[in-house]
Fold this protein.
Amino acid sequence: MSIVENAQSSMLTRKEAKPYLKRKDWPGLLYLSVHFSLVGGTGYLVSLSTNTTWIVPAILLHGFILSTLFHPLHECIHGTAFRTRWLNETVMQILGFIYIWPGLLFRYDHAPHHSYTQIKGKDTEMAIPTPRNLGDYLVYVSGLTHHWRNLGWLFRHSMGRMLPEDRAYVPETEVHKIFLEARIMLAGYVLIMAGGIVSGYWWVPVIYYFLPRFLGEPVVRFFRVAEHVGMEETPNEHSIDMTRNTRTTLTNPLVQFLTWNMGFHGEHHVFPGAPFHQLPALHEKIGHNLYVAKGGYLWVHWNIIHNHLEGFSLQPARKIEAL
């Protein structure tokens, strides 16, 4: 029995878990339509603020909303955003293009994160591992390493090359699909910029898409730091404890919506097959078994900065209560 299965069986029987694993199309379609409406709305604010002093905050807000499309992309790579498979795969490719993170590659890159959570050298998404310092924290939250890695993937894979550490978790039968995915995406970005230049409106894709997308990434990194940083790190997969290496962060309804309930991260790791719309109910059922930060994301970051950076020792995970 796997670590995940052990964690699941210790909290819920198969019969008890079944309702929380039920997938539906309509919640994902509703969330996605509202999310895209918000992207359109903030884009409209950018157009209204052009040639005014409000252009900078408008672009930042637009970038914030645009970058939170990471969360439905994350649902799609798990196959839990929608019940209908073709809908899930199609939306995954669309969101992967918008977010500038190849969806199929993300799926294979993300799998070791669940299998080897918080194990150095095996967890492909381990953020700010020990030893930690404030510089590592700021670099990660800036999103610079994220953009550097993703652009490296795009250019490298479009040329038919893949690093050995990436190939280790990508099935051989999928490598050519990942190369094709990168080529299509890169061609799409070139066409977008070329269209802007030819039409004389080169600044349109810059201020409505590329610049906001770049500037908005720190918001997503801010959310992602809270998922595991400062939690227990383990030497091997046999000692993984998802009640100690993953943090659930309670937050306000707006952030909960924009992150597609991913604040319930402990629940997601115990039941990765549970769709986003079931996570709040799943939290009510098993949240008492997990590491829960009730003070919100700002409190979590304050705790991380003061207790887990600049040489402070990592303390054993414990139940967190709001201050």
Summary: The beta strands are 247-249, 291-293.
